[in-house]
UniProtKB/TrEMBL annotation:
Processing and modification events after translation: Acetylated. Deacetylation by the SIR2-homolog deacetylase activates the enzyme.
Organism lineage string: Bacteria, Pseudomonadati, Pseudomonadota, Betaproteobacteria, Burkholderiales
Boundaries of every Acetyl-coenzyme A synthetase N-terminal domain copy: 27-82
Name this protein carries in UniProt: Acetyl-coenzyme A synthetase
E.C. number: 6.2.1.1
Amino acid sequence: MSSNEAATPLIPAPDMKDAHVYGMQAYEKLVAEAEADHSGYWSRLAREFLSWKTPFTRGLDDSRAPFFKWFEDGTLNVSWNCLDRQVERGLGDKTAIIFEADDGQVTRVSYRELLARTGRMANALKARGVKKGDRVVIYMSMSIEGVVAMQACARIGATHSVVFGGFSAQSLRDRIQDAGAVMVVTADEQVRGGKQLPLKAIVDDAIALGGCESVKNVVVYRRTGGPIGWVPSRDRWLHEETQAQPETCEPEWVGAEHPLFVLYTSGSTGKPKGVQHSSGGYLLHAALTTKWTFDLKPADVFWCTADIGWVTGHTYIAYGPLALGATEVVFEGVPTYPDAGRFWKMIQDHKVSVFYTAPTAIRSLIKAAEGNAAVHPKRYDLSSLRILGSVGEPINPAAWEWFHHHVGGGLCPIVDTFWQTETGGHMITPLPGATPLVPGSCTLPFPGIAAAIVDETGADVPNGQGGILVVKKPWPSMIRTIWGDPERFKASYYPPELKGFYLAGDGAIRDAKTGYFTITGRIDDVLNVSGHRMGTMEIESALVSCTALVAEAAVVGRPDDTTGEAICAFVVLKRARPTGDEAKKIANELRNWVAKEIGPIAKPKDIRFGDNLPKTRSGKIMRRLLRSVAKGEPITQDTSTLENPAILAQLSERN
Ligand code: WT7
């Protein structure tokens, strides 16, 4: 790989003299500042980027490593930093959010209005008894109200846990229960791609599953007016709750370490883990990376196409852009409705200048544009664009080139941002006015992020050789713990053999010449399907919970041209192995079962049936073999330890 990369010419950064970080020398200077005094560097930025109610006296506290603390004796309020501060700076009339609904209807809110709505909602939450430290689950579609709900929680010091609107009742119940939420904020329905989809009904189902006794109130935003069930003692309309509330709500000043949110994400084992983030350190990195990685200026129109249910929507919709007083687009719908030109039309209509999206969306829009010239980006005026960004999975060079050429007109730098739910914000990324680009590489660490590649013992691996991606020093926006499970936090991210380095869970390689990083994919049993992170164990558990049908299941990923990875499930039924139409029928039943258990994003693309699974004589499932079978590649591995080699031919048959 490294020889390949060395042959790829670097694409020089454009000569943007007014860039926040202009030229590699400026980048190197920041890196050197952080190396000389890690805690001092971050403290300087925390003073510059955030407004503190009580200033902190100390940057990093590593006395209880790996439970690191940053700026601990400082107090602040995240919502005050995002909203009141902008009004005080004279940005009250500036548009904060340009919201475009699924049907194309546009609503704009100014910073002053967003502050007023947040204040009313915060007062409404307080009136229902929500206090500092309580958890509030937000199960909402993309909406201004979704952002307001997050900001309102931050305002009163409640810890939010946003659950993506595509998760099932079961998944929602697990998260409500694990978080011990006192309230759920939801909408009657969500609208995506011209369809009305239930939200409130799923909350009802989740609570009916039991174990959610902590939930006292369900607050419902009326989005469509569609029919919904109602429990009078529990359910409240958002508009009725906020109507009589005053717009002003004194912020709750919290310590920098106060948990702003818990966001569930998949690991290689067990149930999804609640990644707990701080207030001060998190907001610092959200604001800082939004400014430097996207070179964001006051006149920019920023659009991050993520959903607020994922960390990208937290950092680069709900917090980062607002902390900078930027104007951002929030989109309710999907990229392919009413047609696959939707993104390009919206960039044109709103004069978007910084556009941040996912490789999976780009790949599907390439396919659409190849099939239908009317939705090709060249049919739209995209001249407002100046910076493009990619996130969530590796971007393949072909998609990079298309994005660069057809969307960016060959002029816009692409920032390929590597990070994770746990990291809170960008970790390895180009800075657009500084870093020369190489398609397919996330280039260099953000200044102050001590990313490195090591072997299983934590020893450095030379450039040009692959290894394990780690971060050697703590950083302000890092995960603080796994909600309610500090032991799992330690075991997952700070395994003893890695000498106190943060384990990202990805493999990576640095180019022999440039030192640029390329992420080679997860080294654990975590899959990345269309940028959505899923644990193979979670899907296996969902399959085997179909006790009427399934005896055993193993799930692996295989490469997919559009979704990056696709889920491939190998299933042994409690009855004879089905073939032909029957196999198709049962495979579909199982797909729907998984959708009901986890959510449609977890549906296996391939389901293969066997009389058994390939196991060693000691009974261990040979996943490496299954990965080869899933890929359709010839089996080159040694199968001599296999109990039942004939099973491989069976499992190769597609349904
Ligand atoms: C995993 C984290 C980052 C926010 C959205 C996903 C993969 C993410 C990149 C990238 C290659 C990437 C990694 C990582 N990933 N960005 N630019 N290049 N891989 O957050 O759901 O926590 O997933 O996504 O495998 O570990 P997440």
